[in-house]
Design a protein that fits this description.
Order of helices and strands: EHHHEEEEEH
CATH class: Alpha Beta
InterPro entries: DUF2867 (IPR021295)
Helix content: 25-40%
Pfam families: DUF2867
Structural class: alpha+beta
CATH topology: Alpha-D-Glucose-1,6-Bisphosphate, Chain A, domain 4
Largest sheet: 6 strands, antiparallel
CATH architecture: 2-Layer Sandwich
Radius of gyration: 15 Å
Strand order of the largest sheet: 1-6-5-4-3-2
Shape: globular
Protein name: DUF2867 domain-containing protein
Number of strands: 6
């Protein structure tokens, strides 16, 4: 994912240590993080879709119904997979985004991280990013924390 950082309008990453008994299966970890949003995130997504859909921007519902279900994690289209990383994302007229869920070792401890990269194409993209930016930080941190609180899938 690192080549995608050049010229990005947003790059952030959040990480958490995995317990010894947690799976290292990247698909299971990505699903644990991305498929259980809290109710307040669902409400924000409905609001986002109602507003952005009127502007011709793809909604979560549209993304959910496109293509093969195996090629998505919730509404996030899967761009690529490896043993250690799943990259989800979408290109749209206002911006392109990618989010990586990656497992790596740091000093003998396995870590799962989520990195987001956004490239804006126009004023609408920059405005959208300005509005959702503060929410994005809270949402990503909440997704990772909630996955850990629920308990990671086991080995």
């Amino acid at each position: 994912m690192a080549p995608g950082y050049a010229g990005a309008d947003l790059v952030d990453a959040y990480a958490i240590a995995l317990p010894a008994d947690a799976t290292r299966d990247i698909e299971a970890l990505a699903r644990a993080i991305l498929t259980h949003p809290p109710a307040w995130v669902g409400t924000l997504m409905l609001l986002r879709d109602a507003i952005m859909g009127r502007l011709g921007i793809k909604t979560a519902g549209q993304l959910r119904t496109r293509g093969d279900r195996r090629d998505r994690i919730d509404f996030f289209p899967v761009v690529s997979r490896s043993d250690r990383e799943i990259l989800v994302g979408e290109d749209d007229r206002h911006l392109d985004f990618r989010a990586s869920v990656l497992v790596f070792a740091d000093g003998g401890q396995d870590i799962v991280s989520m990195t987001t990269v956004v490239h804006c194409h126009n004023r609408l993209g920059r405005f959208y990013l300005m509005v959702i930016g503060p929410f994005h930080v809270v949402i990503v941190r909440t997704f990772i924390r909630n996955a850990a609180r629920r308990g990671w899938p086991k080995v």
